[in-house]
Design a protein that fits this description.
Blueprint lengths: L1 H27 L1 H4 L4 H26 L21 E7 L10 E2 L2 E2 L2 H8 L2 E7 L6 H11 L9 H4 L8 H6 L4 E6 L8 H8 L3 E3 L16 H17 L4 E6 L25 H26 L6 E7 L11 H8 L7 H4 E7 L7 E2 L4 E2 L3 H8 L4 H4 L15 E4 L7 E4 L2 E6 L2 E9 L5 E2 L6 H19 L10
Parallel strand pairs: 1-7, 1-8, 4-10, 4-11, 5-6, 5-7
Antiparallel strand pairs: 2-3, 4-9, 8-9, 12-13, 13-14, 14-15, 15-16
């Protein structure tokens, strides 16, 4: 940890020196620009702000010991998905604890369990959403930018041109689309999707109007339409990046009786937990129909397939960890387990899986997927606030809104600041759930993540407005 402190301290000093020099340089040239029009002066000012942000971003990245874990040369898994289709499924309300869990002799997520054994499985990923919840998760995974917390990103920045996964794939001649059974205006997605650069979105009118829950049609219907549309693209020999946003396992977790797969003869004392497990089990089943459909149409082995959780399902205010432990026989922590969501990445023709124990967040999804798809983000000039989890030896991710600003997860702990910030904060092991008494070692990481997230906010606020924006 001594070497980490030295690197971070030196990096912070370098950042300050660089920022001072950059500001001084621009100030010397202010008089030279004074004769320009107000519009041009504003454009120059914004360019200066962006340059300072990017310089600080680069120096902060160098200051923190992310420790690229590969030797000089080619990155691990780089380009193994190049030229293949890309499919991303955002699984509603799934927490990582349900994977490999059983209740009354029945697996809760048999499809996800099997998929994990045949894929890259990341068990230490944590949600990072703000008030925008599901739509924030879409934003983060597609941009590698932190949400500001206090406003939904789809509403606050739906009028911007966002650097995104869709735009990266479009430059490689991929057709991009996103599927959601609710009305596209929900969470302002009618603005978010153009901001992210998707070519097409499929919302409520494209699906059969079955009565499943208040958000729209079932996940089975979502995937049925999806397979049909993707089959058509495959027939036309078009490569595609497609995103699917599920809703069947959305709170309040009520699945129609004739669609339930998990049957629990012994009712649980926590009825909401029981409903949650039944809903997750159904959504897992529906995911299986999607995979089967892709295999039937010859698309499975031609695609990189990703499933990740958007956010918690069991709110820590309403569920006693002891009840969850009693029902499933597993340890459960009211913060760590609540915010822990799964990420699974299946590679084309992959048969055996690998567990990646690196800690990460939704902000790390894009850099990790980009590496697999053979995209060099640095070479693209893409500013990401996450890291490639397959090629980083140490990681830290921040969280706010559902935890106090300054909270972070690293490879060892969850740190949550107290009323007085760091001084009365608490650290808890993410592996054992045991309290860590000596928190002094995490001070520099606390300072670092606050700077990193603030920089993300500044970067987002200076992004250009899109020309096609309509109120």
């Amino acid at each position: 940890m001594r070497s980490i402190k030295v690197q971070i301290t030196a990096g912070i000093l370098l950042i300050l020196i660089t920022a001072i020099c950059v500001v001084a340089y621009f100030q010397r040239h202010d008089n030279e620009q004074s004769h320009n029009s107000p519009q041009k002066q504003l454009a120059i000012k914004k360019l200066k702000e962006k340059e300072i942000i990017l310089k600080t971003h680069n120096h902060l990245n160098q200051a923190y010991p992310y420790q690229q874990n590969q030797a000089a040369g080619r990155k691990t898994y780089f380009g193994v998905g190049r030229g293949y289709n890309l499919i991303m499924v955002q699984f509603e309300s799934i927490q990582n604890f349900v994977l490999h869990s059983s209740i009354q002799g029945q697996e809760v997520t048999p499809v996800m369990n099997k998929l994990a054994t045949e894929s890259l499985y990341f068990p230490y990923i944590f949600q990072q959403i703000g008030i925008g919840n599901t739509s924030d998760a879409e934003f983060i995974s597609n941009t590698s930018i932190y949400p500001i917390g206090s406003n939904p990103m789809s509403t606050k920045f739906g009028n911007r041109k966002l650097s995104s996964m869709a735009r990266l794939m479009k430059t490689r001649n991929y057709t991009t689309s996103t599927f959601h059974v609710n009305d596209v205006s929900f969470w302002n997605r009618n603005q978010l999707y153009p901001a992210l650069g998707f070519d097409t979105y499929y919302d409520r009118p494209y699906f059969q109007q079955e009565k499943f829950n208040k958000f729209g049609a079932s996940d089975e219907e979502l995937y049925r339409v999806g397979v049909s549309k993707l089959k058509a693209l495959g027939t036309q020999r078009k490569k595609f990046y497609s995103q699917f946003i599920t809703v069947s396992s959305h709170s309040p977790f009520v699945i129609p009786k004739d669609r339930r797969k998990l049957q629990l003869p012994q009712k649980l004392s926590d009825s909401r937990l029981e409903n949650y497990l039944v809903a997750i089990n159904y959504a897992d089943y529906a995911l299986g129909t999607f995979i089967d459909g892709l295999k039937k149409e010859g698309l499975w082995d031609k695609s990189v397939f990703i499933v990740y959780g958007d956010h918690f399902g069991l709110h820590k205010k309403y569920h006693d960890p002891k009840e969850i432990n009693k029902a499933l026989g597993i340890p459960y922590h009211k913060q760590i387990s609540t915010f822990n969501v799964p990420v699974i990445i299946h590679l084309p023709e992959q048969l055996s899986g690998k567990v990646i124990n690196r800690t990460g967040g939704q902000v790390d999804i894009l850099p990790t997927v980009a590496n697999i798809m053979g995209i060099d983000l640095k070479g693209e000039g893409f500013t990401a606030f996450g890291h490639d989890l397959l090629n980083v030896g140490h990681n830290i991710v921040g969280m706010r809104y559902y935890l106090p600003t300054g909270s972070f997860f690293n490879d060892d702990v969850l740190f949550v600041p107290g009323k007085n910030g760091f001084m009365d904060g608490k650290a808890t092991s993410i592996k054992t759930f045991q309290s860590i008494k000596d928190i002094a070692r995490y001070r520099l990481e606390y300072d670092y993540i606050i700077q990193w997230m603030n920089l993300s906010d500044k970067y987002t606020k200076q992004l250009p407005y899109r020309e096609d924006y309509k109120q």
